[in-house]
């Protein structure tokens, strides 16, 4: 059964564009990794909340193990650059579909 990961990143003020540029490259890389079924970068829709510097990366994988192996496909320099642009620790959670 496939799993979905919802990753959330909050940029430091003034760094949102730089963060999205790095993730554009990473999302393209992730889509080529064996076991990846889907990878999308989602931007928060302005809703009047002051918290509009968040970026969501939504991934679907054949398994948790496939997702964990995918980390080797991303350049470690990109990870360092991302962390320098964040105002808080990123979050990531695994989800499984519920049959209805």
Rg over CA atoms: 14 Å
The CATH class is identified as Alpha Beta
Number of strands: 4
* Average pLDDT metric: 91
- What's the number of helices? 3
Outline the biggest β-sheet.
4 strands, antiparallel
Our measurement of the CA-to-CA distance between the termini, rounded to an integer number of angstroms, reads 15 Å
Summarize the helix and strand pattern as letters. EHEEHHE
CATH architecture: 2-Layer Sandwich
Sequence of strands across the biggest β-sheet: 2-3-1-4
Shape by Cα distribution: globular
Question: How is this structure best described in words?
Answer:
It is built from three helices and four strands; from the N terminus they run βαββααβ. It is α+β, with helices and mostly antiparallel strands and about 100 residues long. It has a single domain, classed as Alpha-Beta Plaits (2-Layer Sandwich). Strands 2-3-1-4 form a four-stranded antiparallel sheet, with helices on one face. Helix 1 packs antiparallel against helix 3. The longest helix has 15 residues. The protein is globular and about 40 Å long. It starts with a strand and ends in a 5-residue tail after the last strand.
């Amino acid at each position: 059964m496939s799993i979905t990961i919802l990753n959330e990143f909050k940029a430091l003020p003034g760094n949102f564009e730089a963060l999205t540029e790095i993730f554009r490259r990473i999302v393209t890389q992730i889509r080529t990794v064996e076991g990846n079924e889907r990878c999308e970068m989602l931007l928060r829709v302005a809703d009047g909340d002051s918290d509009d510097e968040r970026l969501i990366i939504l991934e679907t994988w054949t398994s948790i193990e496939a997702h964990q192996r995918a980390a080797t496909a991303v350049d470690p320099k990109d990870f360092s650059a991302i962390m320098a642009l964040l105002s808080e620790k990123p979050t990531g959670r695994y989800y499984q579909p519920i049959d209805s």
